[in-house]
Amino acid sequence: MLPIQELLNRLRWDSAFATGDFVIGYYDRVEGKIIQVPLQQVHITPGDHFSCQVTDQDGYAHDVPFHRIKEVRKDGQLIWHREH
User: Fold this and answer.
1) C-alpha to C-alpha distances, 70 to 4, 7, 16, nearest whole angstrom
2) Where are the alpha helices (DSSP H) in 1-84?
3) CA atoms of 52 and 78, how far apart (whole Å)
4) What share of the chain is helix, strand, coil (3-state, %, to 5)?
5) CA quadruple 40, 41, 42, 43: dihedral sign
């Protein structure tokens, strides 16, 4: 399986692959479920190999460890997943 960091880097740098609507699904321990957010709400800090920041619908930024990202969808189709 492709590591999530590599997939996110490909989305960032490969414009041919990155066309479409991408959604990241991460496991929220408080909610106890997978939260889906558009890729535009995910911020990756260069050099941070452990987490990314996700902005929720209220505008708050949360650190999400990469190991809690469970799925990536492109145009509604599941293209990457990790067992929950």
Assistant:
1) 9, 13, 24
2) 4-13
3) 20
4) 20, 45, 40
5) positive
Which alpha helices (H) appear in 4-65, and where do they start and end? Answer: 4-13
Give every CB contact of residue 17 below 8 A, 6+ residues apart in sequence: 10, 11
Q: Between the ranges 17-21, 54-58, 70-74, where is the mean pLDDT highest?
A: 70-74
For the question of whether the overall pTM of this predicted structure is more than 0.90, the answer is no
Residue with tokens 């799925």: 71
Interatomic CA distance for residues 59 and 14, integer angstroms: 28
Task: Encode 44-76: b = buried (16+ Cβ within 10 Å), e = exposed.
Answer: eeeeeeebbebeeeeeeeeebebebbbbbbbee
CA distance 77 to 4: 17
For the stretch 53-65, pLDDT in tens is 999 888 899 999 9
